[in-house]
Automatic annotation (TrEMBL):
Subcellular location: Membrane
Protein's UniProt name: FtsW/RodA/SpoVE family cell cycle protein
Lipid bilayer topology: Multi-pass membrane protein
Transmembrane segments: 12-28, 40-60, 67-88, 94-111, 123-140, 152-169, 176-199, 251-270, 338-359, 368-389, 401-425
Top-level taxon of origin: Bacteria
Signal peptide from the UniProt entry: none
InterPro entries in UniProt: FtsW/RodA
């Protein structure tokens, strides 16, 4: 009977995920506010039933009461977050909030299936990060001096990255953590704020050279620390922000050429890079060593097929570091390729919403922040999924909100809180525009009435 429930559950979860993904794109295009709110409520119901079905299966396969307790705690966390955002920020983007909850749900489901202890730690980090994040939208709205802290952002980034390079221990071939924390995750935010602060005031050649020097310092330290995934994310965010702020294709071309040259140099300088490229080119040839991880990932993806094997029916534990770098492979194996495609589309919906917010913001500082944070998010998703599927060499970055990792989870939730603050600012700008438009119309009507009275006399 349990096996029948497990088999049916994967189709139920998949169907609910497909409907949720459709809602992500359809809701954005819905002009009617009442209809949009109804779709958002339906999304919450879909998330609830996906969670209920998944955790029921995990419990039936393990009979571990910790799973039930975790499920209850997770539902309380989601309910509190949804209620607080609705009470504190009536102009917040509920679609953005729903997508965050959906991605967290997928992560919690897979982590609970793999290791309930790690899932509990992840939930605690998510709750703490969300508590801190609740204050960020109002800070973005009120703290207008953030644009003036240009060199403070740069200083924080350089000092923390230098500390990691000098003091951190090497793990998986790279220096990543200091005192159990990965500073590069937080520096993604300060780096974007630095770039936005500098380029929103000046886009001359001198300014571009200065901002490029600071960006090169960030990326250079990351490369020396062999944190190549973060280095690539920083570099892409730098390129996009410089190009958008200057609208100069030449800068984009120079950046791409320089980045390509740096990649070649890194390949020849670091054996760690050569190993990953070798594993990417022909993982079977080095299966016993550096190719083992990617081969196991591909086996998992192929085994899952379109519909997956069902929760607790696969063997994702055979993939090294599956909870961090290769959780996408575990999702493909047990929930299926169609579910994984829907997950990618939800991430894409996330990014498109952020870009839409950036395009509609008038203030150039906030516009660049939204664009920079959105670029970092999208490219991190690309690196993680591309590495797991052998589309690109593995870079060792996590899938935001889904993979296990306290620093990454904290940074991503704070980034989304900043985006929420920018969304609220955009709503304020729209209200101000409408207010001025009404005032202008009232003045025009008043003048017309005065003109009519004058003509009568």
């Amino acid at each position: 009977m349990i096996n029948v429930i497990v088999e049916l559950s994967k189709y139920i979860i998949l169907t609910l995920m497909i409907v949720y993904t459709f809602h992500c794109f359809y809701t954005v295009r819905q002009p009617d506010e009442e209809e949009r709110n109804e779709l958002l409520r339906q999304q919450l119901i879909l998330i609830f039933f996906i969670d209920f079905t998944a955790f029921l299966v995990i419990y039936l396969k393990t009979f571990d009461y910790k799973v039930v307790r975790f499920y209850i705690e997770m539902q309380i966390f989601f309910a509190v977050i949804q209620i607080l955002y609705r009470v504190l920020y009536k102009k917040a983007s509920l679609l953005l909030l729903n997508n965050m909850c959906m991605l967290l749900s997928v992560g919690f489901i897979m982590l609970c299936r793999l290791d309930i202890t790690m899932a509990t730690k992840q939930l605690l980090v998510a709750a703490g990060a969300s508590a801190v994040a609740l204050a960020i939208p109002v800070m973005i709205r009120k703290m207008r001096f953030l644009r003036k802290l240009t060199w403070i952002y740069a200083g924080i980034g350089v000092v923390l990255l230098a500390a990691v390079f000098l003091l951190a221990r090497t793990s998986y071939g790279a220096k990543l953590t200091l005192l159990g924390v990965q500073p590069s995750e937080a520096i993604k935010i300060t780096f974007v704020f630095f770039m936005a602060s500098f380029l929103s005031r000046d886009t001359s050649l001198k300014a571009v050279v200065q901002v490029s020097a600071v960006a090169a310092f960030h990326v250079g330290i990351l490369v020396l620390s062999r944190d190549l995934g973060s280095a690539v994310i920083f570099f892409v965010a730098y390129l996009v922000m410089v190009y958008v702020s200057t609208r100069n294709v030449g800068y984009l071309g120079l950046g791409l050429v320089g980045g390509s040259g740096a990649a070649v140099v890194a390949y020849h300088l670091f054996g760690h890079v050569r190993q990953r490229v070798s594993a990417w080119k022909d993982p079977m040839a080095v299966y016993q060593n550096e190719g083992y991880q990617i081969v196991q990932s591909l086996f998992a993806i192929g085994t899952g097929g379109w519909f997956g094997m069902g929760l607790c029916q696969g063997s994702p534990e055979s993939i090294p570091v599956v909870k961090n770098d290769f959780i996408f492979s575990a999702i493909c194996e047990e929930l299926g390729g169609i579910f994984a495609i829907c997950l990618i589309l939800v991430c894409m919906s996330f990014f498109l919403m952020i870009v839409n917010i950036a395009l509609r913001i008038i203030n150039p500082f906030y516009k660049l922040i939204a664009l920079g944070l959105g670029t970092e998010y999208a490219f991190q998703v690309f690196l993680t999924i591309g590495g797991a599927t052998k589309f690109i060499p593995m870079t060792g970055v996590t899938l935001p909100l889904v993979s296990y990792g306290g620093s990454s989870l904290l940074s991503t939730i704070l980034m989304l809180a900043i985006i929420q603050g920018l969304y609220i600012l955009r709503e304020d700008e729209d209200e101000e525009f409408e207010k001025r438009k009404k005032e202008a119309l009232q003045r025009i009507r008043a003048r017309e009435e005065i003109g009519d009275r004058t003509r009568r006399f």
